């Protein structure tokens, strides 16, 4: 354990003894990009630093959104921050991401999004035309998703101490009566479904950021998923778990669910919907599509008797036209995700330490 004598640079009143060993820094005494990647290092930072620091005030459920009951009404609440670089990319802007990302976190609880807050951190010297372009795309995305922007904040930092525009959004949604969605409901036998092509957003941003060309323009899949979720629930299908596989991709989301539910997940790689453009780009860059971020897809764990009708409803929706069953939830290897390869072998799909593509959302 660290103490003040061993670490004299610690600020007065800092109680390093409250940290949980081992320290979450993986031999690094400072924050690194991987701490923000949604993988193992993000989890360690939360578990071993933030939660002990928060103490009794913390709710350790650790979801992307929380369901709270107020006056007999169940509300979902979520907040998210967006630092994507560049601010504009094929298929979207940081403004659209900021709206769709928070809406999707609410939708993954089965909630109908109602209102959002918006907060902008602007770097001195950023062109007003750039800010206007982002703000307009944010407003258009909110209108398209039928949510209201009801409050917000604006701050400015010195030139060189930001990156143009950072955006935070928080949202509140209404959870319908009888809807109970979360990792605690995952069961062996559940069918694992993805709503469409994976890896598109990450490759779209990377191609724009690095000036790469893959023979065709890969466009981000950023989109609000609340309508798709509503159509799934309207079928009466027993939806156990929903998750939007953003940072860390499908691999990170499935590992988190498997660990929280103490179940195993077995994927069929041949069933994964990976566009040729994404597969080719990942091959060139040495990336695994399972770990590449998405911004308009969801992973669902469905009761086996209801999987077919849920899939039918998904495929009837524009954002679920390429929905596909990609695996099953199993009793074996609890907390672990494995994939059956095209050659008939099996490989472990680990939780990534960080993120293959930083600053992707």
Shape: globular
Task: State the low-pLDDT regions, or none.
Answer: 1-25
Strand count, sense and barrel status of the largest sheet are: 7 strands, mixed
Report how far apart the termini are: 35 Å
Write down the CATH topology of the largest domain. Phosphoribosyl-aminoimidazole Synthetase, Chain A, domain 2
Give the rounded overall mean pLDDT: 90
What share of the residues lie within helices? 25-40%
Number of distinct beta strands: 14
Number of helices: 8
Number of domains: 3
Structural class: alpha+beta
- What topology, given as strand order, has the largest sheet? 9-11-8-12-10-13-14
The CATH homologous superfamily of the largest domain corresponds to: PurM-like C-terminal domain
- Rg calc: 21 Å
The CATH architecture term of the largest domain is Alpha-Beta Complex
Order of helices and strands: HEEEEHEHEEEHHEHEHEHEEE
At the first level of CATH, what is the class of the largest domain?
A: Alpha Beta
Strand content range: 15-25%
Describe this structure in words.
The chain has three domains: 1-61, no CATH class; 66-174, 60s Ribosomal Protein L30, Chain: A (2-Layer Sandwich); 183-348, PurM-like C-terminal domain (Phosphoribosyl-aminoimidazole Synthetase, Chain A, domain 2, Alpha-Beta Complex). Helix 2 (94-107) runs parallel beside helix 3 (128-144). Strand 5, helix 3 (128-144) and strand 6 form a beta-alpha-beta unit. It has eight helices and 14 strands. The radius of gyration is 21 Å and the shape is globular. The chain has 361 residues and is an alpha+beta fold. The strands form three sheets. Strands 9-11-8-12-10-13-14 form a seven-stranded mixed beta sheet. 27% of the residues lie in helices and 23% in strands.
């Amino acid at each position: 354990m660290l103490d003040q004598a061993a670490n004299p640079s610690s600020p007065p009143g800092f109680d390093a003894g409250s940290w949980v060993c081992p320290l979450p820094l993986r031999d690094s005494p400072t924050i690194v990009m991987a701490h923000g990647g949604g993988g193992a290092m993000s989890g360690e930072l939360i578990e071993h630093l933030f939660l002990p620091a928060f103490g009794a005030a913390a709710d350790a459920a650790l979801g992307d959104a929380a369901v709270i009951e107020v006056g007999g009404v169940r509300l979902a609440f979520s907040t998210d921050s967006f630092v994507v670089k560049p601010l504009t990319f094929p298929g979207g802007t940081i403004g659209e991401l900021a709206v769709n990302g928070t809406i999707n976190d609410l939708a993954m609880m089965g909630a109908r999004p109602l209102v959002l807050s918006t907060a902008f951190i602007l770097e001195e010297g950023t062109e007003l035309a750039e800010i206007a372009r982002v703000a307009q795309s944010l407003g258009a995305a909110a209108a398209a998703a039928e949510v209201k922007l009801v409050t917000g904040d604006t701050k400015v930092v010195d030139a060189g101490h930001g990156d143009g525009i950072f955006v935070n959004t928080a949202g509140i949604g209404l959870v319908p009566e009888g809807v109970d969605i979360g990792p605690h409901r995952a069961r062996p036998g559940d069918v694992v479904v993805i709503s469409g092509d994976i890896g598109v957003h990450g490759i779209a941003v990377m191609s724009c950021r690095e000036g790469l060309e893959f023979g065709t323009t890969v466009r981000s899949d950023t989109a609000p998923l609340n309508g798709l979720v509503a159509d799934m629930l309207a079928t009466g299908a027993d939806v156990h778990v929903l998750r939007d596989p953003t940072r860390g991709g499908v691999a990170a989301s499935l590992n988190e669910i498997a660990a929280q539910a103490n179940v195993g997940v077995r994927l069929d790689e041949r069933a994964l919907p990976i566009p040729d453009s994404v597969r080719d780009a990942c091959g060139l860059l040495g990336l695994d599509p399972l770990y590449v971020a998405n911004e308009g897809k969801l992973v669902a764990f469905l009761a086996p008797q209801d999987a077919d009708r849920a899939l039918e409803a998904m495929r009837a929706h524009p954002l679920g036209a390429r929905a596909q069953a990609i695996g099953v939830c199993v009793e074996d290897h609890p907390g672990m995700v494995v994939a059956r390869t095209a050659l008939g072998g099996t490989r472990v799909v680990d939780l990534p330490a960080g993120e293959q593509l930083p600053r992707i959302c």
